[in-house]
Batch of 2 targets.
Target 1
Amino acid sequence: MPLRIYNTLTGKKEDFLPLREKQVGMYACGVTVYDLCHIGHARSAIVFDVIYRYLRYRGYDVTFVRNFTDIDDKIIKRANEEGVDYRAIAEKYIEEFNIDMGGLGLEKPSFEPKATDHISGMIDLISTLIEKGSAYPKDGDVFFSVGRFKDYGKLSGRNLEEMQAGARVEIDEKKEDPLDFALWKSSKPGEPFWKSPWGEGRPGWHIECSVMSQKYLGETFDIHGGGKDLIFPHHENEIAQSEAATGKPFARYWIHNGFVNINKEKMSKSLGNFLTIKEILKQWHPEVPRLFFLSHHYRSPVDYSEESLLEAKTGLDRFYSTLKAIKDEIEIIPSPLTGEGKGGGIHVLEEAQKTIHSFQTRFEEAMDDDFNTAQALGYLYDLQRNLNSLLDISKGHPTEAILTLLKQGLDHIRKIGGVFGLFTGEPSEYLVRQKKEGLKKFNLSEEEILQSIERRSQARKDKDWKKADEIRNDLFSKGIILEDTPSGTLWKIK
RNA sequence: GGCGGCAUAGCCAAGUGGUAAGGCGACGGUCUGCAAAACCGUUAUUCACCGGUUCAAAUCCGGUUGCCGCCUCCA
């Protein structure tokens, strides 16, 4: 069964057949570096990170390009506000981007080109477009003539008449048609500029992606993606420029991720509900937002809320607990495998066997269906429940059969974790980290807790249940939950 | 005004023709001194509403209502 991808260009799920067998060229629009990245950038980045990882899991050799827009009106504005050179702004926010995305556990793309490193390529492309009659210079600016590109609107599903009818486009005297867009903008005094055949200026926004994608991936390549908001005009314009210049199809599969709302409201600076990645990472383990996003289909809008993130955290905690329990069972148990388990485990064993053996197929089926990570996670929860059942019947007396299944299950979780960027930490370290952060939050010391546990253990030995329960309730009110296990009393954060 | 999307349990969420995954929560049970954790069970005869097509519809078609996005910089 082939991988199927929903293609914005056709509005349908299509079999994914790359241009060259076993190789994929993929371009994702990155960010304009004039401010800190927010949770919406995080979603987009995570979506394409997982697509990148899954394609490689599927055996493709993937060239993944993600650009930086490092020259643009907003950057210039910011630089003016802060009284610094535009390059200082760009550099600063590229650095912050790298810190944030690293923090989220994103893999590095194959290439991360910057717009300003490709100005001459843009000038060449613009020249070609002028030669071919698709663009026209006017007083130091160059515009793309939308009316002369017959396929204009094919990505966003609109036609020229409609757009002109409802046009809210700024009327620019220089444009032959209000829908035409700038390929090159002349610079005003004091603005950064590059020399060009049309005078000093800077590139328009869309041209950079056409140039950089084609430079690293060829004139026609497999996948182009970004947030839904980029469909129009950005990606529409990229197609127009590129195809008008080369006469060949540009990107073959267009993938767009849905938006992030915050508490049911669109995230925007004016509403003041703008969440940066730094704020998220201060509050949550990086895999929490990841699990949260992957619990939804990448094309659906997603509502970010404290509760949803907490739910994701609960899920992540459980996975790590299961992972740790499995490791303990496999590693710490002394060798003679005399165990009989608890008995009555035949049914559990068979059930688990079925789930574990079919897991990989089900995972791949889900992912092959337009990267249905939510479905895949459903299977992962199934797997986890079965593994916990095995642990339950094993409890310190694993049989060969149980150990084998536990190991297979562990391998599966690890492998899927590699595709999803989840469960990358050592379970025990993850759990310790959760505890430490919880202690800080509740302003408690571990020593204090251990002393209480010690006193309670003594009370329990004395069968002084009243005292034991008092101590436990006291800790509970401070945010600590106790678990009595055969190997002693454990504690965790509420 | 134009274009597009969405509506599935208390909440979150998969599911595009074959009889409703999964998670959180809640309740009951096993275990436990009691709990916690884990496991088992229960929690949508039904997928916004009304029609239609079909042997069969959450899924397809038409209509209604409600929400959202895009058309301007935006992940």
Target 2
Amino acid sequence: MEEKIDIYFISKKAKVSPATVSRVFNRSELVSEKTRKKIQEVCEKYDYKPSIVASSMRTNKTKYIGFVIPNMTNPFFFELLRGAEEYASKKDYYLVVFNSENNYEKELVFLDAIFKRRIDGIIISGIAGGKKDNFFTREILKKKLPCVLVDRYVEGLDIPSVITNNVKGGILAADYLLKINNKRIGIITFELKIKIIKDRYNGFKRILEQNGLLENFLIEIPVDSKNILEELARNRDKILKSKVDAIFCLSDFIAIYLMEFLRNSDIKIPEDLSVIGFDNITYSQFVSPKLTTIAQDIYKMGNLSCEMLLNNISENNNKNIKLKNKILEPKLIIRESCAVR
Amino acid sequence: MEEKIDIYFISKKAKVSPATVSRVFNRSELVSEKTRKKIQEVCEKYDYKPSIVASSMRTNKTKYIGFVIPNMTNPFFFELLRGAEEYASKKDYYLVVFNSENNYEKELVFLDAIFKRRIDGIIISGIAGGKKDNFFTREILKKKLPCVLVDRYVEGLDIPSVITNNVKGGILAADYLLKINNKRIGIITFELKIKIIKDRYNGFKRILEQNGLLENFLIEIPVDSKNILEELARNRDKILKSKVDAIFCLSDFIAIYLMEFLRNSDIKIPEDLSVIGFDNITYSQFVSPKLTTIAQDIYKMGNLSCEMLLNNISENNNKNIKLKNKILEPKLIIRESCAVR
DNA sequence: CTGTTAGCGCCTTCAC
DNA sequence: GTGAAGGCGCTAACAG
């Protein structure tokens, strides 16, 4: 029978108490250099790795952060995840992935898994929410699980979030289109119940309004992110007959599908029709024509969300500092998909 | 002082023993329906969620799987992750993300984190490996941590893997180019030390050889996945002067950068130059011209890798069935980036 | 600076 | 079908 290598084993070999061994890993400043070195040598020799599982029992900290994704098909979320992971792993926290694919049932399962696992906090980059509005976030709040929203926010709920100024993003898009004299406007929308999406829409529309061009707002096509191409095809006539100059897409993901659709329909971008997107995902620069878009700093949003969450987790102990939201600035990226008229 | 809600609390309220409560969650077939219902009601009432952390201590199972990614910039890995997550979460396992960005130091840190966290197994979609070749995998083997490689394999080591037949993929690419009479050939390579990449290369080259066209293998440009565009630019003259008909890229990720580079250099695809890729990532269909490529079923690879890992984890107990590798078939996807000459 | 001790919340025997 | 009890590996509190 092999002897198990735990903290007692190490403490015996090093001729110290288990508490001292523990201190070496947690509060090593309390241990004299001499004994610390000795203990480290013994640990090395037996390849001892203290169990975080066991320490979680005592400390009530698992060093895990949940990362909830609504749709792993959109690389936008991968970039968000990348930003968060990079910050977390630096601090010895690691991310657990929960991909709901916008499925409410799955979210309920995740909620259960998250609580059972005693995860220290979660970052939410999108939830379906289901019939009961915001059930997910309400549960999180009820249980006082530290939480940060990225690229999402919920009004009236006390959950910090990291977002881009989406209203301003919409404004930038509209301003630009008008400036280059694209005045017959269409828009492809999706999930307008999501506030950040609605904000883009509102910002955009506001500019048309201010310029008395609301009657030039000719088509508005809602799309479901699962069957974008089909829904565009269903609206083919509407799009072709509208004779719009430009179409604003509420995300690059959708813009790229729209470009594909237009190409298949022999409509030339930007000669026949300008397209402008939102997000600036990596691939927007690779489609052709290169997509003009409103950029968010996606990586930074992910990174910041994790930073905020970890700050909250540690501040929870001396509940003093109030969480703040972070709002990043959007930026117009002019590439090739919009024409001056 | 709030009473803590643990298994004892529930057992008292339900007037049963803690053992019975535990059984309801784990081996509920051993509990009579009547007591089970009663216990469930009490759990519901107090919103009790048994701690997986505590159960991990007893069972030595954390229900976590590590997912090691070499590069979160390539959406290929997101698709792999998606496939694995989907399988895992169905079985109440969850994935912990370790993104090394091909950094050997980070991998060492991860190795430590993985062992300390007593994660049940890991899926590796790529590692740097560092100076000591395969240090990472050797450590994993030494500690007998269940492990599966996806889109990677290591010869001579007893680690199961899920891959596509990459040699065959290379063959398909070469066959196709020759068939459409593209006979002056170039290739953009990267990380040839990775076996699956080298296999693609070898399969491709073998066909040229068999057709006595090896002297038509005109340029071979190695590229570092971090600065693809710059490295292509550095080789601009070489590419332009070679007058090749077609370039084979060992991944779509690279092919897309190459297309971008060629576009910037006013070389028309496919009229002046055919491009063929490998992987069939989502965006290959959105670039224009649409990329002709050798497809791997990425999602399925991720899914399968997780299935294999979980099978191994449970079979470990009654160490009987030997792990097998899975080799999926590649498929030529003809789109628009290769011209008949 | 170091040691002793008592749990953290659960599950697995082993009884009954 | 159910209960009693010990222990998984660690750390916090207290004592020295």
